[in-house]
Structures are given as structure tokens and as C-alpha cells.
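Two entries, shown back to back:
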Amino acid sequence: MEQSLLERIIRLDENDELNIIRILILIDKMAGRNQKQTIDGINKLVKLDFLLRYPVALERALLKLNKDKDIHNIDIKVYERESVETNLMHFNYGPWDSRYRRFLTILEAKGLITYIISGKTVNVAITQAGHKTVDSISSFFEFQDYVTRSGLIKRHFGSYSSKKLINFFYEVFPEMVTMKQGDEIKI
């Protein structure tokens, strides 16, 4: 039996490797040119990944910032606009996917990221091996959207704190304000 495009997209989202690659590319871009910057907290990482994972959400966020010239760089595909599938759930601090801890544990176990504890915050940093991995996979056409979109996210939202991001999300995605904890986020 032939799978529909939507069924294939849903299966891709269930693929840990694809999610791990997306997150690794984002962490690498957030580290900057010198690979020294960290993402201040896992909640911030998840919010930034929300924008990467759902380019329609990134488009809405850039529209809110009046960054019209950057919107064409997102290059949203038809299936990305029409996909009704999402695994992210609304929790107290915004979007969340129960698999994030597993993804990050795999990345750390492979030596691609590291954690730097600062008080109660777990900062996420790219390692040299992680950066080299991103350098090699960035040449693949299939990952170019992640690379480009991660650069936009870094430029426009990298300096935001987790709290500023969630407040911004509530402005841009007012439907999140009325959602109950555990509800699927549909953008």
C-alpha cells in the first residue's frame, strides 16, 4: 500500500536521527563563529527548536518583528505549510516534546554537545566534534533548510532569554495562551 505524503512526513518526525541532526545544527549555529556561545537552558533550546521545527511558526515570528526581507530565506515547502501533524505539547514554559532529554543525552553520549552548569541553569554547548559533524552534514542538500533557518533564528532570537521568548511566543501565537497544559500545539 502506497503511503501518502502526510504519512511519510509523520514517519520522518518519528525518526530520532533526523530530530537529532536538526537539534545539533541549531546548537552549532547558536554557538557562533567561535563555537563558544551556549544556549542558556534546555527550555530556551526547545523554544528555538520550535521555530526551526515549524517554519510556519518562524515565518509568523519574523513577520511580528517586521523582518520581511528574511522571510523568503525560510523557503517553506508546501508539505510544511499543510502538515497538520505535531508532537509538541504545551507546558508551563511553552512548547515541549518528551523526547528532548533523550535526544540531548544521545548527543552528549556521542561527544557532540556538552552541558555547562551555571547555578540552576543547564547551558548547552557544542563540542569540537559536534561542530565538525555539523560542518560535514551541512553540505548535504537535505539539511540546507535547517542550516539557513538556524542562522535566522540565531540572528533574530539568539539574544532572547527563555522568558523573553515565551512572552514573545504568547504575542505571536495567542492560541498558546488559552491552551491547557499537555494540549498539542497546532500552528
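entry 2 starts here
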Amino acid sequence: MTAATYRIDPLPTAPLDNVRATGRDVSGFPVEHAAATGGEPLRCCLRDAAPGEALILFGYEPPLPASPYREIGAVFAHATPCTGPAGSLTYPPDWYGRPQVLRAYDHHGRIHPATRVTDGTDPEAAIRAVLADPDVARIHSRNVAYGCYMFTVIRAE
């Protein structure tokens, strides 16, 4: 059996552009503006913020098929459009060593038992292990401490 291939997706540009243009998040709440203190995980470019960068904090609903498992959580992004992730979309270098929950979902958007916690030392191996189950369609990487959505891993067909 060959290992599953996958891609890592940052926040999609359409909802991010909408949040920046309207100043409102998916729930209609106002976006919060802040200057980075440094280390805030930016979901638009999949890296940690440098001190002083202009950020927005807002409620985001990660992509899932319609299901009871859809949820909204707070995320940071640049206040103005950025260039996105540097290079190819591999595991974000700034986030190695950061414990994550790899929440697995099936094709119907339901949480799958392949979900696991990783300490961040070998996140690619943990992702491949979750995707070893053919019923897993996508993974949401989430921060262990706060439960915040970080990015989506999509199984490549």
C-alpha cells in the first residue's frame, strides 16, 4: 500500500477577503484589529507573526461538508492581503514542535476515530498515519491548548 498524498491549505482567500472588506466575521461580529506581539499563528500565510505586524482576529468556520461537526473559532490573519505561504504548501516550518490535534473527518464531514494528538516533532508522519485510513477525507490541524483551527489537510485523490 502506498502512502496517501495530501496538500495543506491555508485560509481560503474568498472568506478572508470578505472579512477584510466588511470588517465582519462569519457570525457578523466585528473583526478585532491588533498589532502582533510576535508568535501569533497567521492562518493566511501559515507562519508566526513578527512583532508589530498588523493583524485581524475574527471568527472563522473551517471548510467541512454540512454536518453537526461544523464549528466557528477565532483565528489570526494579516489585516491586509499578504503573499500567502512561502514556497510549496508543506507543513509550516514555524509550527514544528507545536503540539496539535489532527482532527480527522470522513467524506460526510463527521469526525473520524483516526483523530490523534501529535507533539509536533514529526507532524508529517502523524498526518500520514491519520490518512492511512482510507475513510479519512480531510484533517483539521488544531492547537492543543486553545483548540484553534490552524489549517486543513486534504487527501489528494
